[in-house]
Amino acid sequence: MPPEKKDRSPVALEQRDVSADQRMFSPSVARNSAPILAVLKRVLPTRGAVLEIGCGTGEHAVCFAGAMPNLTWQPSDPDADARTSTSSWIKFAGLKNVLAPRDIDVCSGQWGVEQTGHFDAVVSINMIHIAPWAASLGLFAGACRLLHAGGLLLLYGPFMRDGAHNAPSNAAFDAALKERNPSWGVRDIADLEHVGEAAGLNLRETIEMPTNNMLLVFSSGSA
């Protein structure tokens, strides 16, 4: 892959409304929360700790944590506005199993949560296609460090299979992303499998989701 410019700028590809208490509202979250939650309920343990990378508005965090009260949810995002929105959503929802959002740069060798112990799952939704390839590498490396044996890395978004898009709309989306930033783009499942295998994370399941998205489930070692 070509050399990348180091760009940590926060990205939102949609117009978000903001309430007086600084909660942001994401149209894509309103559409995808229910189908993602259905998968999470099936694959995640009933108890444990989950780290979310790129929590955005925080709506996913409170939705999923509210539906799975025996899981402790640790949201994170490098964008200060996203963390403010997430904190406001946590307060608004009154949930005790969602921790204060952390500032995590996935390209860093240390994420600042290592001291809290290992996680049962790392979840990243609609992140790796709006970040440089180095972010994908960092995400797998961090998951390898932080997951329990048998822990899961879950990636949601648009993906290619062996260089082919699964819909013309995704091909157009990929082209638009690369026009905006050449280091972005819809990632190929085969490339992610190779990175995962090098990090000790094996692709366990590929789940077709609405609107031509997928949810990839990687597993760390053996349970």
Automatic annotation (TrEMBL):
Keyword line: Methyltransferase, Transferase
Domain of life: Bacteria
UniProt GO BP: methylation
Pfam family, one: DUF938
GO function term, MF aspect, one: methyltransferase activity
UniProt keyword annotation of Membrane present: no
InterPro entries in the record: DUF938, SAM-dependent_MTases_sf
Keyword Methyltransferase in record: yes
Alphabetized PANTHER family for the sequence: UPF0585 PROTEIN CG18661
Name under which the protein is recorded: SAM-dependent methyltransferase
Originating organism: Rhizobium azibense
